[in-house]
Amino acid sequence: MEWLLYATGAYLILVVFSKLTAPKVESVSAKSLDALIADKSVKRQFVDVRTAGEFNGQKIKGFKNIPLDQLSKRMKEISPDQPVVLMCASGSRSMKAVKILYRNGYRQILNVKGGISAYH
To answer: Which residue among 88, 95, 110, 112 is the active-site one?
Structure first.
C-alpha cells in the first residue's frame, strides 16, 4: 500500500512539472491569418508542417513547407530570433512542432488554430 502512495506522489510531481515546463504558445485564428501575413512591421517566419503532397495541394502564399518529420533536421532554416507562425492541416501536427521548437530554444511561436482546414 505504501508503494501506491509513492507512485501517486511521483505521478503528481510529474504532472505539475510537465505543466510548468510546457511551451507557452499563442494561438492565432485562421481568420486573422491574412492580417498577420500582411503585417510587415514584424518579420515573421511562416512554416507549414504538413507533408509536401498536402502542401502542394493547397498552400498559403508566404508559408514555407518543412514537414514535421523533417523539422528536427531542417531547424537551421528557421531563425530563433524571429517569431515563427506554424500551421498544419488541423492544428495537431503544428502543436507537435511547437514542442520541438520550444525544446530547442525557440520562444516566439504562434500556432494557427484549426490549421489550413479552418482557413477561409
So the answer is: 88
- CA gap 45, 51 in Å, rounded: 18
Our answer to whether residue 61 is catalytic in this structure is no
**Can you give the pTM of this predicted structure?**
0.80
| Residues 83-107 pLDDT 10s | 999 999 999 999 999 999 999 999 9
Instruction: Encode 1-22 in three state secondary structure.
Output: CHHHHHHHHHHHHHHHHHHHHC
Rg (CA), the chain: 17
Q: For domain 24-118, give the CATH number.
A: 3.40.250.10
Look up residue 105 and give its three cell numbers. Answer: 530554444
